[in-house]
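Section 5.1 Outputs to date
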Amino acid sequence: QVQLVESGGGLVQAGGSLRLACVASGLSFNTYAMGWWRQAAGKEREFVAAISRMNHTPYYGDSVKGRFTISRDNAKNTLYLHMNNLIPEDTAVYYCNVLGTAYWGQGTQVTVSS
């Protein structure tokens, strides 16, 4: 059974930083590309970042380029999202996802106050 468990969300002031983590189990983590998505209240789910399975090539949504960094530790089956220079528009529930599959985590809330 595939499980994705996110952590690290919280309340932070604008300009602050957070690091999200997603621990995966029940799959061969290093054989999948992984991604982060977010959904703000009343809005569609939005692509944030993705990372390839082996050479760790990152891809970013336009709204987070230069502020967020995606990384992974295949030895720990863990995906990370380092978020810097947070702005109120980053407020959302953040989800990790095994790209190309229906496997999603339960989400972690990030709230950025102005």
